[in-house]
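Q: What structure does this chain adopt?
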Amino acid sequence: MTVVKPPRLKKGDLISVISPASPPKDSSKVQAGVRYFESLGYRVTISQNVFDSYGYLAGTDEERADDINQAFADKNVKAIICSRGGYGTPRILDRVDYSVIRQNPKIFVGYSDITSLQLAIFKKTRLVTFSGPMMGVEFGEKIDSYSEESFFKIVTSVRKPGKVKNPQSLKAAFKGKRNSVGRLLGGNLTMISVILGTEYVPSFDEAVLLIEEVNEEPYSVDRMFTQLRLAGILDKLNGFALGQFTNCSPEDPAKPHRTLEQILDEDIFSIGKPSISNLAYGHLPVKMTLPIGTLVSIDPARKKFSLEEPAVV
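A:
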């Protein structure tokens, strides 16, 4: 499969901020993120509807989609970073102009609710996007050195990144008896489930499935993994890359329940495919940036998870 890689980010490049889902909780954090990038020598523009509020959405569906289309169409913009996730990105997938994206490949960064748009972009254009920190969240606070290094290594260097390392405080776990290689696809589990059965889902055949989740009880996680299994996705994968399941414990532990560990063991690890879990990825302040659509490898015996090709050109 041929993929499209965006040009690497360089000092002086113009970055556009958009809100495909919800408006920023704190506009001052977006402004702080802007100042952070400007202090590093980049230029930043804020799209028209970033701070709009249409209920829980950052403007109407048309307005949010227009910001995406205009940012990709603008020849001066070299990278697009979402302000935050929240809710609403799947609502605009049918309003995005994928022909414009195809003709203007550029760096696109976000995570959580943004997952649905990243998968749709890959399905429609084969453009590699980046699941990583956002302008009004991590970049809007004092971003830690691990997250900062991971982000800029991925979006600025044309060298193969190679082995991915967690921060020292977080130990990854490996399972499986063989090595595997596949394209990294996925992100937030809920967002993958939301778009299943639509024209915006890429093929997961021989892929490595990337998963993270937040604020879902174990039964809900179990339900979504069951949906992936019944859709025939899990059997076709080459492996799993699991991040954090933040706040995914039972609301009332006194009631009958299954733990998240039991669900992962029965729904994922029992399949026997190579996996890495407990990655510093997802809804946590210290996080790695991962390129959606590039080749990755999992080597359980050597406890090695590697990015096998550069994500930018």
